[in-house]
């Protein structure tokens, strides 16, 4: 079979081979660059269906000279050297030699285009393995620096087989595009809009989509419209917005910005509820995107069903710890209670509090808590609660619901009754008068309990 | 997104700032704040008015003290539920409060009861 491409997994073995060092970078949890490059090279070769050869297919080191001339020996038209360096902030880079041929430049740009979602850019340098004297004139030669081993998150991704597959898929697309003459592998056609349509925009995202952890994310549930046709319709979103929501979901799945804790079934139920709420609410989508974007602060949502002493949710409290305890950055969410709150209003009570706004409240409150610089914990809660209420009201405005909330208050029931309520006044902001008042009734979760922490019904007045 | 960024900004919401003496500590609702504010009521006598208006020295007020899980004075009670620390909040204990009127009672923005710890 004709060999079109030589893939060069950098480093290898346990000893130097000329100027090729054996191990390369080492991640903080022990992942070694030579193993990443070999793993990725094998995946890339598989993607290229036998048209590729590796400069090494085992844990051995090969000199830079042997690596560089391999493509010429095989008569291959593309040479791709793979690295996964350890720079603190290193992202994906595609390198070509400072005196590279136009073919190398074409290959590098084809690769960078496919790796755009990984932040790739083309750089030039005097890299021995890319030296023009080692490569044929009609051969493209580049070096892909994946970065990532310099920080824990990058290392975690490089351990993820799905991420490596996604990278391999993107690299293969770049190679194929180059071999076809430089055309992008997926075309640059106009995005296809419409519900559930795979509107990816320019090029690569098939690989990008593979890179995301979209567990329980149902893309076809969203209503995708062209830009300019979404204003005033909170259920409509553009493809760009959907992409950012998917990225946010992926970050949540990887524990960035938001980490979910609890039983697998509870976390899945939470994700499904979150997805449903996002389908119809831009404020909900914005909340998820905003909270997950800050990877310097990750809030843990402790998801549980009827955890003891939790009425809807608890700020800075971890019910999933043993024993349950106050804990900064944690928010306990009671799925039982949230499921009693209606998802949509009835005709009789237009403006009733929705599940979505309660979820928005909880997420915002938790995220504000871990970002806040307010020292006094009670004042911190007050501040976070105020922001959460404001966002809740932003949702109510989005939905054109009657009345704004000023926040909810727990009212213990009569002594010995084992009951409690949460009372919420929905107020006309213009007059300050009540539009309606909701009373949420809580009872003990089971016959053996005397603690009223399960939401059982909601009364509306008027 | 944050509306308030400093302790002082939140304290500025107070309508009244006063020193008081606890007369009686009410029942805990058993949980701490989240979607809904959880308060534990304290009956107290105003001993010094520091700022604001609406209260006078000698007034007896029902003051809702917010229960927040990470507050140092919110601890598990003998029955396992959370409430004000009885070693700190007890009859005759002195405190300093920033409060606002919430329709039917005074609610503390926060309470400084450092003196009770010393």
Number of strands of chain B: 8
Oligomer: heterodimer
Query: In percent, how much strand structure appears in the residues of chain A?
Result: 15-25%
Largest sheet of chain B, in brief, is:
5 strands, mixed, barrel
Considering the protein shown, what is the CATH homologous superfamily of chain B? Nucleic acid-binding proteins
The first-level CATH class name of chain B: Mainly Beta
Identify low-pLDDT runs of chain A.
182-206
Main sheet properties of chain A: 6 strands, mixed
Please trace the helix and strand order of chain A, writing H or E for each element: EHEHEEHEEHHHEEHEHHEEEHHHEEEE
Discrete helix count of chain A: 12
Characteristic key phrases:
heterodimer; A: 462 residues; alpha/beta; 6-stranded mixed sheet; 4-stranded mixed sheet; 12 helices; 35% helix; B: 118 residues; mainly beta; OB fold (Dihydrolipoamide Acetyltransferase, E2P); 5-stranded mixed β-barrel; two-stranded antiparallel ribbon; 8 strands; 8% helix; globular
Describe what this molecule looks like in 3D.
The complex is a heterodimer of chains A (462) and B (118). With 462 residues, chain A is of the alpha/beta class. Chain A has twelve helices and 16 strands. Chain A has helices at residues 33-47, 64-74, 102-114, 152-159, 161-179, 205-211, 239-253, 264-280, 282-293, 335-340, 355-371, 377-398, and strands at 5-9, 52-54, 78-83, 93-97, 121-125, 140-145, 223-224, 236-237, 258-261, 299-304, 313-318, 325-334, 404-412, 420-427, 434-444, 452-461. A six-stranded mixed sheet of chain A has the order 2-1-3-6-4-5, sandwiched between helices. A four-stranded mixed sheet of chain A has the order 9-10-12-11. The longest helix of chain A is centred in the C-terminal third of the chain and has 22 residues, at 377-398. The N and C termini of chain A lie far apart (79 Å). With 118 residues, chain B is mainly β. Chain B is globular. Classes of the chains: A alpha/beta (462), B mainly beta (118).
């Amino acid at each position: 079979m004709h060999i079109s491409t030589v893939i060069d997994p950098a480093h290898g073995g346990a000893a130097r081979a000329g100027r090729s060092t054996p191990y390369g970078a080492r991640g903080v949890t022990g992942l070694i660059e030579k193993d990443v490059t070999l793993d990725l090279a094998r995946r890339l070769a598989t993607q290229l269906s036998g048209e590729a050869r590796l400069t090494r297919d085992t844990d051995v080191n090969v000199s830079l000279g042997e690596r560089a001339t391999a493509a010429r020996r095989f008569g291959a038209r593309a040479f791709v050297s793979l690295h996964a360096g350890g720079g603190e902030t290193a992202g994906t880079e595609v390198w070509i030699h400072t005196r590279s041929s136009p073919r190398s430049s074409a290959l590098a740009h084809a690769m960078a285009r496919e790796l755009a979602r990984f932040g790739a850019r083309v750089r030039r340098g005097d890299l021995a393995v890319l030296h023009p004297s080692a490569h044929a004139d009609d051969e493209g030669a580049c070096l892909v620096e994946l970065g990532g081993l310099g920080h824990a998150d990058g290392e975690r991704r490089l351990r993820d087989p799905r991420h490596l597959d996604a990278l391999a898929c993107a690299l293969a697309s770049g190679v194929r595009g180059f071999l076809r003459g430089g055309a992008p592998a997926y075309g640059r056609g106009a995005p296809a809009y419409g519900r559930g349509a795979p509107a990816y925009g320019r090029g690569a995202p098939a690989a990008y989509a593979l890179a995301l952890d979209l567990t329980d994310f149902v893309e076809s549930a969203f209503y995708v419209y062209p830009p300019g046709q979404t204003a005033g319709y909170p259920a409509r979103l553009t493809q760009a917005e959907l992409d950012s929501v998917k990225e946010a979901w992926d970050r949540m799945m990887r524990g960035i910005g938001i980490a979910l804790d609890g039983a697998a079934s509870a976390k899945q139920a939470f994700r499904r509820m979150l997805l449903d709420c996002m389908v119809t609410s831009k404020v909900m989508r914005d909340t998820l995107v905003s909270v997950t974007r800050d990877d310097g602060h990750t809030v843990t949502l402790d998801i549980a069903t009827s955890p003891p002493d939790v009425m809807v949710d608890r700020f800075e409290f971890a019910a999933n710890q043993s024993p349950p305890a106050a804990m900064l950055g944690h928010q306990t969410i009671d799925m039982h209670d949230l499921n009693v709150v209606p998802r949509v209003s009835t005709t009789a009570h237009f403006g009733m509090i929705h599940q979505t706004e309660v979820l928005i409240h909880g997420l915002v409150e938790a995220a504000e808590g871990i970002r806040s610089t307010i020292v006094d914990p009670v004042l911190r809660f007050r501040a976070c609660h105020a922001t959460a209420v404001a966002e809740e009201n932003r949702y109510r405005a989005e939905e054109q619901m009657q009345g704004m909330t000023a926040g909810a208050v727990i009212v213990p029931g009569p002594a010995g009754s084992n009951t409690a309520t949460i009372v919420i006044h929905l107020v006309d902001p213009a007059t300050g008068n009540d539009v309606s008042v909701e009373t949420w009734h809580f009872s003990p979760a089971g016959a053996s309990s005397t603690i009223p922490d399960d939401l059982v019904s909601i009364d509306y007045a008027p | 997104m944050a509306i308030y960024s400093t302790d002082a900004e939140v304290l500025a919401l107070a309508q009244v700032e006063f020193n008081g003496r606890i007369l009686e500590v009410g029942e805990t609702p058993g949980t701490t704040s989240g979607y809904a504010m959880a308060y534990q009521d304290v009956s107290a006598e105003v001993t010094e008015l520091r700022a604001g208006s609406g209260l006078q020295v000698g007034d007896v007020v029902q003051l809702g003290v917010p229960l927040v899980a990470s507050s140092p004075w919110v601890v598990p009670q003998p029955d396992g539920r959370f409430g004000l620390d009885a070693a700190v909040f007890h009859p005759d204990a002195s405190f300093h409060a920033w409060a606002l009127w919430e329709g039917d009672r005074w609610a503390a923005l926060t309470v400084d009861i450092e003196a009770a710890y010393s």
